[in-house]
Amino acid sequence: MGVVGRKEDYGDYGRLYDVIVAGGGTSGIPAAIAAARAGAKVLLIERTGCLGGQFSVSGPAGFCYAFLRNSRGQRDVGGFAWETYRKLFETGHALPHYLPEVRANSGYTFAYVDPDWWTQLVFDMMDEENVDLLLDTLVVDAVMDGDTIKGVVVENADGRVEIRGKVVIDCTGEAYLSAKAGVETVMLDEEGFPPHSLAFSVDGVDWDRFLMYVRHNPKQFSWREIQNDSVGNTKERIREFYANLTDIKQVGEIVGFYELRDAALENGDWHPHSGAGVFFTPKEGAHIVAHLQHSSQVSDCPPTSAWHITHAIRECRRQNKIAWRFFKNYVPGFENSYITKVATELRLREGPRIVGDYTFRREDVIEARLHPDVIGKSNFIADSQHVASMDTLNVIKSGKTLEKWPHHHGSYDLPYRILVPQKVENLLAAGKHVSADSAVYLRYIQQTMVTGQAAGVAAAICAKTGKTPRDLENDHEELQKVLVEQGAILYLQDPDTIEKVGHREED
Ligand SMILES: Cc1cc2nc3c(=O)[nH]c(=O)nc-3n(C[C@H](O)[C@H](O)[C@H](O)COP(=O)(O)OP(=O)(O)OC[C@H]3O[C@@H](n4cnc5c(N)ncnc54)[C@H](O)[C@@H]3O)c2cc1C
User: Of all atoms in ligand 1, which is nearest to the CA of residue 45?
Assistant: First the structure.
């Protein structure tokens, strides 16, 4: 019997692809789809046997599809992110975008999607857009002609193979291919390197019982991640919100459990590397699964060392076991719960970032700067840094009084030049390793989708016209036009000139 399936599922090592995308995470997937929609023949190469990267393989993401609206209520992310959310919502695999006022005030609201159906959806989209996929394949080198990339070298079941492409996009998350091509990268020092985590999911939680505990114990939970006195999110207001919660899905995540955690710590039932917190993941019929993505944290492990990564995975597994026992034995509602998934890959917080023609920095966020080569927007704050401490969520290293919100709680532009590495031609980078300072690391899922989609469109234009990615820095009209046609949001009304859009329960 012959091979069952479609012959067109097979790509071709001998082909000159218009666009090669290395890495199939939350940046590589939109890059491949956007390039294909812009007319390119695309090959996407992924190290594992699954698409999704930190979203599904080492996920699911806790606050998935969060920060799609700024604190003034303007949705500033469209394109691939919004399209996939809507598709999943319409097929019953995503929940309404909950917008309770106290969370909307901080921009920290969620459009939850089911990560397993999200993964299925992106595989379907690869079929629809005729993208060639090469899975279980490691990109190990760049094929170079001087400073111009001409393709990649991969290793897989077929051995070591060279594949040629007109434009290559590095979406490996760790600037792996860019470094091979000779691009300069920057990374924080090993000592004090931000922690990585190993995520796990838990089902069988009695959410009514859990909700009752939250309502009766509002002081036991963290409020700082959504604190913003200038828009009315005071500690008191946030606690009042917890005390009046009617649906656990309105919070998206909840962190603290202070008394329970401290009692456990005294009994030797908690570890000091992270705090206690839980996120929510939707399944069929609006069933909610608990997702624990911050229960283990291991610092000082740059992902450029396999020994460090291995150590972090082993240590995270030790910490997760402790955290799991805590939730089951101490937290009301978790008594009959059980683990359904432990990620097989570490979630890497920090890593190398490319040095591009523009380096995104703190002022771009704080001043809500606009750029002529805008490819998308974001409203995520500056200075969001994790440390391996019991203060699980973001700890502001540089001091709490420092301004971290975009000007007037609006949105800022992401410029195209952060995708273009210095020196090397015909290479683009998208995802969490784009050119940015650590304080404004563009690693959140919606941000990686924005840079991924833009890199895909830019690569397709270059393949078609013979221009280089660097040429588009001052010749970006076509890039922006196609992005807008693909649903990207590049322009918004000045937030200073509008009233706050206000409180809505859902989208
Ligand atoms: C603990 C933790 C929790 C997080 N939670 C959230 C959250 O709740 N919400 C949110 O918005 N963001 C969250 N993030 C951040 C976000 O998930 C990631 O930063 C983002 O998904 C990165 O996308 P990416 O495409 O750049 O990289 P990745 O998703 O890492 O994708 C890179 C892909 O490239 C592949 N690859 C790597 N090297 C090679 C190679 N040499 N050859 C072939 N393939 C290769 C990898 O297998 C992977 O599939 C979290 C991060 C961490 C660490």
Answer: 43
159-170 and 148-156: which strand pairing? Answer: antiparallel
* Cα–ligand 1 centroid distance for 444 (angstroms): 9
**Of 172, 320, 414, 451, which is best to mutate to test ligand 1, by the most ligand atoms within 8 angstroms of its C-beta?**
172
Token pair recorded at residue 191: 């000592």
235 CA → ligand 1 middle, Å: 32
- DSSP letter at 44 equals E
Q: Report the nearest atom of ligand 1 relative to the CA of 346.
A: 53
Q: What is the DSSP letter of 110?
A: B
Which amino acid type is present at position 79? G
Measured from CB, residues less than 6 Å from any atom of ligand 1 are 22-28, 45-48, 53-55, 61-64, 66, 138-139, 171-173, 176, 196-197, 293, 347-349, 431-432, 443-445, 448
- Mean pLDDT per 10-residue run, the chain (507 residues)? 65 95 98 98 98 90 85 93 96 90 86 93 97 98 98 98 98 98 96 92 97 97 82 90 92 92 95 93 91 93 96 97 96 97 93 98 95 97 83 54 76 98 98 96 96 98 98 98 98 76 49
What does the block give as tokens for 301? 């492990």
3-state secondary structure of 43: strand
Q: Count CB neighbours of 6 within 10 A.
A: 8
Q: How far is CA 192 from CA 189, 402, 434, in A?
A: 7, 21, 22
Instruction: Give the span between the Cα atoms of 266 and 272, in whole angstroms.
Output: 11
Rounded Cα distance, 93 and 475, in Å: 40
Q: Which atom of ligand 1 is nearest to the CA of 293?
A: 1
**What totals of helices (H) and strands (E) does the chain contain, helices first?**
12, 16
Cα–Cα distance measured from residue 71 to residue 403, given in angstroms and rounded to the nearest whole number: 15
Taking residue 491's Cβ as centre, other Cβ atoms within 10 Å add up to 11
Q: Identify each DSSP E strand in 379-447 by its residue range.
A: 412-415, 427-429
Residue 3's pLDDT is: 53
Cβ contact 68:76 at 8 Å: yes
Query: pTM higher than 0.90 for the full model?
Result: yes
Q: Rounded to an integer, what distance in angstroms lies between the CA atom of residue 435 and that of residue 114?
A: 30
